[in-house]
Amino acid sequence: MIRRFLEGSEARRAFMIFLVSVVFWSPALFGDFVWDDVNNLVDAPLLRGWPAIVESFRHDAMWSARMNAAAIGTYRPISLASFVVDYQIFGGSSFGYHLTSILWHGLASMVVYHVLRRFLDVLPAAAATLLWGMVPTNAEAVAWINGRSEIFALLFGGLGVLVATSGRSFIVRALGAAPLLLAGMLGKESGVVFCAVAVLLGTELRHRTSARAGLWLRSFDFASLVAGLLALGGYLYIRHLVFGGHPLPGATEKMSTPAEIAHVLSQSASIIVRCFETVAVPTRISVGYLYLWAKNLTMIDLVVAWSMLVAALAGLGAIWWRGHRLPVLLLAWWAISIAPVLILVGRDWPGLSRWLYMGGPGLVAGVMLIVQRAPWARLAPVVGVVYAAVFTVQAQRSIMVWYDSGTLFERMIVEEPGERFGYLSLAWYYLRVERYAESEAMARKVLEVGPRGHDPMAFLVASIAAQNRCDEARKTIYEPNPMATRPAWMMYAVGSCFSRAERPMDALAMYKDCAAADKGCAATAKAHEDQMAAKSEAPSGPPSGPPTTASGAAEGDPLFEANELE
Predict the structure, then answer these.
(1) Residue 324 and residue 451: Cα distance in Å, rounded?
(2) Beta carbons of 271 and 302 less than 8 angstroms apart
(3) pLDDT tens digits for range 455-509
(4) Which of the listed CATH numbers 3.40.50.150, 3.40.50.300, 1.25.40.10, 3.90.800.10 matches domain 418-563?
(5) Does an H or E element contain 138, and which?
(6) For 221, 243, 378, 523, which has the most beta carbons within 10 A of its beta carbon?
(7) What pLDDT does 207 receive?
């Protein structure tokens, strides 16, 4: 098998890697729409027509979910456009969406292999690519439909690196790589890291092929630099057109003052160590959430982490000094790719594993090269086999966790019992699948855990109302609580409860309150009032009104806003 692989053409080797990647992640085909997939795909009619491809480039990433722009200013038009194409081909089948995600990942694996082949022999390049493809943390990018933005960033960013490091002329490399690097950023904002990766690897390749010895920087690759600057300038201009005003993502606001910058830097070593640990010791398989973890870091934690980071940097410096630059550059690829994590931790934003996808190839290949040069290098194949086995088992477990929202957030509660996001998300999920008592229990658990983040009162009210405890639900709305606003669909849910209980006056009052919060309720309130009038004139007429269950609301009703949980 290995001999046939080595004797085949480069295209055949890449295709075999593609097939292995697709087969490895194929169990994800049987997953459902999970978490934000519901907001962006299931309940997103805006992505169901071909014109939406153009509209995806004219709006922020929250547009399709009919939500306000995210606090971090997400703009991922290529991902949204791909969902439009998926819908035209597969309709509402989650199988089709998962299939295209896996195929895109297979193509990204081919690109990773070709990038590594610029610097490594066939077998090491293939081994590093395949081992990276097994990393369990990739599940959040591959097995979660809405996570495919990471794949596009790596796919197009990697293609940009390939063009920038090719043997073509300066003009061809600069102008050819720029649109690909731009496409990587349009896949996801953090695709900007490949502008730096192109410069680093391009300089290394020029230094290897240059007849001039001496400093590495004497071979600096200006073509890659020009490509990166053109791509970045184009991206910022597009963001300016879409968002208006300041073109940088909102996440950068957390580094707007010296004190905030110092705070981020103080935690950076701990976060870098945590990111490495998440890949190297993949015990967590649900949604990661670093906010509370970062808040609870002690001075001892910070000192230990900085000591580990300084020791690692010293070791990498020694490796560089001995002329082994490639592993250092590959690890730099990984380090640059996780730089956004340092800021996102302070934004109280759920996630971690998917943020490690783009830099994963650099981490795996860099560590593999270091292990090969260690005194115990003969054990390197054994270490690789052990990691491949562990990664395979954990990756398959991760895929199963991402089969549905209930499984995902139940696992998150097990892994992070002090993080309220898991309970809050389960309250939303249970409400959606009509498990109302469990939804109520989860919403109350959020109140016990603490007041941070999204308020659970809307889910609590809706779940109580769905259990026909109308007076209690209404009382819960109007009692003092920490909610700044009351979502319209919450009043609608209580109005529906009173309608089912045949208390039309109470129902009308709730529908009017709903209409005051959202004009979409005005028609419902008017229709209910008309029905009351008709009933008073003809008492024998059959009752009618709004849907009798939360799941019975028609598209466009305020109750459909219940799934707007970031």
Answers:
(1) 51
(2) no
(3) 788 899 999 999 999 999 998 888 765 455 677 888 888 988 998 998 988 888 8
(4) 1.25.40.10
(5) none
(6) 221
(7) 87
